[in-house]
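Journal club side-thread
Mid-discussion, someone asked how the predicted structure for our own chain would compare to the paper's figures. Pasting it here so we can look after the session.
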Amino acid sequence: MTAPTTYRIPTSRKPEWFAVHTWSKHEKSVFEQLRQKNVETFLPLYHLSKRWRNGQQSGPVPLFPGYLFVRIDVQDRLPVLQTSGVARFVGFGQTPAAVPDNEIAQLEVAVANKLNISPHPFLAVGDRVAIKRGPLAGLTGILTREKQGLRVVLSVGLISRSISVELSTADVECD
């Protein structure tokens, strides 16, 4: 068992990552609006194939419905809050909490390498493992088992959201 990540209130005037809660199904439009405002934004997506009554639909959908991430100086949050579709910053009361850079970095690596990723229920405790091979080598996550096999869960604790990545048992070792 490992200690949970501690989230802190930013005190310096430097850009940090923050989680932004959006209105339902507004993640992509908020992402585009923020990009037009030159705000560094990260919206992790995964490919979903789903069968509906009227046929099959597939395409990129947000890994964390209702959330995206922005890298800003906390003092410059007003333009983000004034964006149509933004509900609030995730934090403590009215104060946004910074997301650790390593949590964003592990999400960026997983998304950029087009791995077989999917949302996963958030896990607060579990066995931490180090990934020793492949594009995620050096990252750590929580080991889980599913019917399909071994998966490692990468988490963003501030928003209580996680993704799971399918890996071989040879690719992980206890941390």
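Post-session note: The radius of gyration is 17 Å.
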